[in-house]
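step=encode ok
step=design start
structure_in=
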């Protein structure tokens, strides 16, 4: 297969990566192609072929890598360049020769290392993780940025993320959708968003193919996006503003949609203002249930569950759940359940008690229905709190 490839023209193609912050092309990922006349083929099958040795893979990859570095260095673009490198390649070459060929190419072509992102690809790695991290730090010390590819898809595990401490976490939405049923991948996206913010990393979502994928990326807090919704990989670099009008319009539509959704969510608060301000006295489960039942006509259709707890986490009321026909069902078996084990419960109770006003939680996936929810909570009387689960 290598001989066949050597008979063809090897070319680095460039897929744009867009910043949702500026709506411009911020970087390109270099991807290998073979060109024969008008026929352009991906080199993915070549690099995934386990019958081909690492030496042959590296030979071809280095040709493509140097091509990409030279093209970016000679262009008028200020965009960054993402280069895919397997951890086993980085580890073995440095251990054997004490050099990093990518850094040599960068120096040879006079490219600012700060414009290069070393993208550590998803691959099983059998060497010592601390040694790999130390080698990757050599790139970092020379000014390169570090990214980890395909977060959540397999070998890019949390140990590797914690050890390498990348500047960018990269998630392939296509892989994530294939690995998760129903809307489970949205919950995973949210978890990666939290992880990236806690690590001080930017979130890049690739595999964005539809406007809905773009909306999910915006909702998740992605800083960068990449995918066929914008462009496939091309032989030439593109105008940095090529997708700016499209992105500005989609962000505007997304903003309008989210504002309308939050207005609907906060309409719950408007209907409960009088209740929060009142001197309600809850002495029993019956009192709590009667209060909840009095709210059915005033809460919106997006409220699907209501219950009441004391400040010690113990549920006083029954659970009231709205079915698909809009009818409320009472379930008394939840009386006495304690929710203090939820990590947010105590801090939320303190905020509610201090400010005496309602608050809306972040989005989460409901354990019982697997639907995306937000919970509106507000104080009632001196020591009770009302919870309304609102479907997103």
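sequence_out=
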């Amino acid at each position: 297969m290598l001989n066949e490839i050597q008979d063809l023209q090897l070319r680095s193609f460039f897929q744009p990566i867009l910043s949702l912050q500026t709506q411009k092309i911020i970087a390109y990922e270099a991807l290998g192609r073979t060109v024969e006349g008008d026929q352009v083929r991906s080199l993915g099958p070549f690099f995934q072929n386990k019958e081909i040795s690492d030496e042959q893979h590296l030979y071809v990859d280095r040709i493509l890598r140097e091509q990409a570095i030279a093209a970016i260095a000679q262009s008028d673009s200020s965009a960054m360049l993402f280069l895919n490198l397997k951890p086993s390649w980085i580890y073995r070459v440095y251990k054997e020769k004490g050099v990093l060929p990518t850094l040599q190419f960068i120096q040879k072509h006079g490219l600012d290392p700060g414009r290069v992102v070393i993208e550590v690809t998803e691959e099983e790695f059998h060497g010592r993780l601390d040694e790999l991290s130390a080698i990757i730090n050599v790139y970092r010390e020379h000014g390169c940025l570090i990214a980890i590819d395909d977060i959540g898809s397999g070998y890019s595990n949390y140990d590797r993320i914690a050890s390498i401490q990348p500047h960018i976490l990269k998630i392939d939405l296509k892989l994530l959708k294939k690995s998760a049923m129903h809307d489970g991948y949205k919950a995973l996206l949210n978890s990666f968003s939290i992880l990236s913010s806690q690590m001080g990393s930017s979130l890049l979502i690739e595999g964005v193919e539809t406007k809905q994928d773009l909306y999910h990326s915006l909702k998740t807090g992605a800083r960068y996006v990449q995918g066929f919704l914008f462009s496939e990989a091309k032989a030439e670099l593109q105008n940095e503003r090529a997708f700016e009008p499209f992105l500005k319009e989609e962000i505007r539509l997304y903003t309008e949609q989210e504002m309308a959704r939050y207005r609907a969510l906060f309409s719950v608060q408007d209907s409960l203002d009088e209740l929060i301000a009142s001197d309600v006295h809850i002495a029993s489960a019956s009192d709590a249930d009667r209060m909840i039942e009095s709210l059915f006509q005033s809460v919106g259709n997006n409220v699907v569950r209501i219950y009441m707890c004391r400040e010690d986490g113990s549920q006083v009321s029954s659970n009231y759940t709205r079915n698909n026909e809009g009818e409320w069902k009472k379930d008394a078996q939840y009386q006495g359940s304690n929710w203090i084990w939820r990590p947010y419960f105590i801090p939320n109770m303190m905020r509610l008690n201090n400010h005496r006003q309602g608050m809306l939680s972040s989005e989460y996936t409901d354990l019982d229905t697997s639907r995306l929810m937000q919970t509106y909570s507000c104080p009632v009387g001196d020591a009770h709190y009302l919870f309304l689960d609102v479907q997103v």
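step=design ok
step=annotate ok -> The mean pLDDT is 86.
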